[in-house]
Specification:
This protein has two helices and six strands; from the N terminus they run E-E-E-H-E-E-H-E. By secondary structure, it is of the alpha+beta class. The strands form two sheets. Strands 1-2-3-6 form a four-stranded antiparallel β-sheet, with no helix packed on it. It has a two-stranded antiparallel ribbon with strand order 4-5. The longest helix is centred in the middle third of the chain and has 19 residues.
């Protein structure tokens, strides 16, 4: 997690996408949603080949704060909830 005077940035190891630029003071809900979004995208990117699907990184159900994630198809729902807050995407750190 990176903190500055204006914003916060969460980075999950192995995530190659663009993280969201979050508020300085995060609620646990926003933190949990961004963490799950990055972990699901990272899991899809690195572990979706048929021979590795049984050994995926995320073991479901995944519990983060008040949320219980039962499958990776919940990614569009998480992205829709985060879109309501109008956070901006940062550049990708590939």
């Amino acid at each position: 997690m990176f903190l500055s005077k204006e914003n916060s940035l969460i980075r999950v190891f192995g995530f190659t996408g663009a993280p969201l630029m979050l508020l300085v003071f995060l609620t646990s809900n926003i933190f949990s949603l961004e963490l799950m979004r990055q972990r699901i995208q990272e899991d899809i990117e690195h572990f979706t080949t048929p021979k590795l699907k049984k050994s995926a990184w995320i073991k479901y159900p995944l519990s983060v704060d008040n949320y219980i994630l039962k499958k990776d198809e919940s990614l569009p729902i998480i992205e829709e909830v985060l879109k309501q807050y109008r956070f901006t995407l940062t550049i990708s750190f590939n």
